[in-house]
Amino acid sequence: QLQACGGGLVQAGGSLRLSCAASGSTLSSSGMGWFRQAPGAEREFVAAISWSGGSTRYTDAVKGRFTISRDNAKNTVYLQMNSLKPEDTAVYHCAASYLSGISSGTPAYRYWGQGTQVTVSS
Q: How far apart are CA 49 and CA 31, in angstroms?
C-alpha cells in the first residue's frame, strides 16, 4: 500500500527528496513516519508527521537538515533531505501509523513501504 521512491546516490552536502505514495486507501487519518536502516544496524526513527501535518518530530541527527511534509489530497508524504552526510546512508522506509498523531516507535506503525536506498558518498 505504500510505495517509497526518490532515493539515489548523492555526494555529501547534496539533497534528495523522498516520496511515499499510498494506494488503495487514504492516509488522511494516519500519522506518517520515515525510518531508516543501515547495513548491520537496527531500523531507526527519522521523522514523523501528524495526520493534519500540524505536528512534526525529528531525530536529533537530522534536525535542521530534513523536513517531513504531506499532501493528503495526493495521499503522499515527503522527506526533503538537505546537507546529506555519509552517515545518512541507509534504506529509507515510510510507514503509516495506527495513530493520528506522531510517534517515533515502530510498534505504532501498521503499514510499511518497501524502502528506497539512499547512498551518500564522501
A: 6
- Contact in structure between 34 and 52 (CB atoms under 8 Å): no
Cell reading at 96: 503509516
| Cell numbers representing residue 121 in the block | 558518498
- Looking at residue 1, its pLDDT comes to 84
User: Once rounded to an integer, what is the mean pLDDT over residues 88-114?
Assistant: 95
Angle of CA points 18, 19, 21, to nearest 5°? 160
Mean pLDDT of all residues in 98-112: 93
Q: Which amino acid is at 112?
A: W
Nearest 5°: the CA angle 108, 23, 45 is 30
CB distance 5 to 16 below 8 Å = no
* Closest CA relative to residue 107, chosen from 97, 116, 115: 97
Contact indicator for 96, 103 with CB cutoff of 8 Å: no
Query: Phi/psi of residue 54, each to 5°?
Result: -80, -20
